[in-house]
Amino acid sequence: MQPGEQDDATLAAQVRRGNTLRIGLLEAGYDLIASLPADMFLPERIAQLQPDLIIIDAESDARDVLEHIVITSRDERRPIVLFTEDATTSSMEAAMAAGVSAYIVAGLQAERIKPVLGVALARFRQEQILLDELTDTRHKLAERKVVERAKGVLIAHQQLTEDQAYQQLRSMAMNKKLKLSDIAQRILDVEDLLG
Question: pTM of the prediction?
Fold first, then answer.
């Protein structure tokens, strides 16, 4: 096979894959809002379009695409499905670390697109719930630490018991109509100023 023939064969295979993907999306009831090249403008284009789902068709090595995906999904997470022929473990792990919801090897067939996207969306929603719970737990833990430190300040300066310091914090928070952690942070800020 001559170099020009190989390029033609590769281009024909890409066109077939693209058509298969479009047909599968339309049959599954999805609206295709754009088909974008994986270049340095990809994050801006995705930010402008605000798609509900990102589908990547990477016939082989998807590492270049993954760099753009990391940038794209950093600020606003979206479900991402990657169809590829690359079955290497390192590529799969890199894709998952980049935020890919479903890594589908040798599975680009029109009739499989709807169930694959359904699983990817369900997995993304479940992961998002877990991430939200983790963020909430971290936030509550940080607030608790602030309250504990503020109680320590009150105990040290006013010779209160732990319970008395907590009650005083609660009373101040209610009087100022603030959250307990907010009043605790104010006490810590004053303590830092007066040092």
Answer: 0.70
